[in-house]
Amino acid sequence: MLVRSAPDEEIASAGPLTTSPRTTGPRVRWHRGYARLLVLSDVIVLIWVFSTAHIAWAVTVGADLETGSPYDAGPIVVSLVLMTLWLAALSIAGTREPIVLGAGPDEYKRIVTASMMWFALMAFAGYMIRFEVPRSYVAVSVAFGLVLLMLSRWSWRQWLVVRRQRGEMSSRTLVVGTRGAVERIIGVVGVTSHFGYRLVGVCVPSAGDGSESVAGLPIVGALDDVVSVIADGFADTVLVTSTDATHADMVRRLGWDLEPYDVDIIVAPSLANVAGPRVHIRPVAGLPLLHVEEPSYRGATRWGKSLFDRAGSMALLIVGLPIFLATAVAIKITSPGPVFYRQERVGRDGRVFRMIKFRSMVVDADQMLTDLEADSGNEVMFKMRDDPRVTRVGRFIRRTSIDELPQLLNVLKGDMSLVGPRPPLLSEFSGYGTDARRRLLVRPGMTGLWQVSGRSNLDWEETVRLDLYYVENWSLIGDLLILWKTLRAVISSEGAY
User: Fold this and answer.
1) For the whole model, what pTM was predicted?
2) What is the domain class of 171-270 according to CATH?
3) Helix H or strand E segment including 292
4) Ranges of each domain in the chain
5) For the packed helices 145-165 and 106-129, what is the interaxial angle rounded to 10 degrees?
């Protein structure tokens, strides 16, 4: 190998060629401990699964004596091998990596991928060695195993979220960038503790201009001080915002300088409100280019959503019929007036429809509105915690969201969706800007992303941001997750009034 010597000053300017041993911080320690808990949990689940599968095999063995007894040494060894391979597939698929723990559906997707990988391998190996087992054994092990693994991981995730809400098992994160970019990041990441980023400080240009904090976080240095701040053990994660001050060369140099430390570097692109399924990274000559696909709210996907809404609303109407009848009787005998309340709302593409709800207020509530003052901090949508117009029964059905159930009829009719942006009043729609009007590209929903992210406690700007995120990135899986979170929000009654 031919090695070209370089002047001393060139070598010095290029940065260190060797790094000191990487340190192991508290972030790595908690993750390793949590990963061991997940491994132990997966082992217990799979032992339960294969034990149940052997029982199913024993039940069916009488119908097919050629398969032998499930309690022979051979089948038991096969089950142990299959369990080991399933555990290995869960590790290979990265189901215990820090990036997927605590938030988002990625962990569940990886579990499904690992399980399908294991099933394909099992089927191929069984064909090659001609080892036959009853279909009941396969069906129980695959279906029961997948369900139990998902439930187990969901339970651990709830435990992790609670710990992170207490400030534990999270990454101490240093935010780097200009003041404006840092404030935007803090406004989004700082209120979502379950993702595991605990913001502890910021580094901004011109840190010595007299300001001591940005959006409540202390300024701990300038952009050139990031390495020294990390070296002091202040944080274990660096979140870099995308601005002119944090250009590509700066981020690359920062990565080199932080190599001796066990630190994660996260870059927040300037591209906002676009979800992962629409974003694809394509490296071109070492430059990662983000390809953004068009939103999927047109074409066949819209018909699929419509079919899901109609079938789901019909099923919920049938299941909820006793609640419908009990609520109607309670409203009728406690307050004079009709059981239902109909109001004109603006739907998809600006079309007006009449939304139906259980009446939760006195009959002349609309005429009393001008004498009341909202207290929710939302400049567009009127919200009041102790609204005197709400009846005694109305307070209960609003807190439990039972007053929204008649909207299932709007969903069945096609005016609304189970999940979507909130349908605005005509008066609210007249004050919409260009961004807010994009909420009308899809049918309005009974529930939506903002309802499960704070319900009535959100301000107008945050409500629009969440609704636009939904419109741009909706998917059937996303709708199912929102429906599940809605059920949890209704049970807790958080933010509802």
Assistant:
1) 0.64
2) alpha beta
3) strand 287-292
4) 26-165, 171-270, 300-492
5) 150
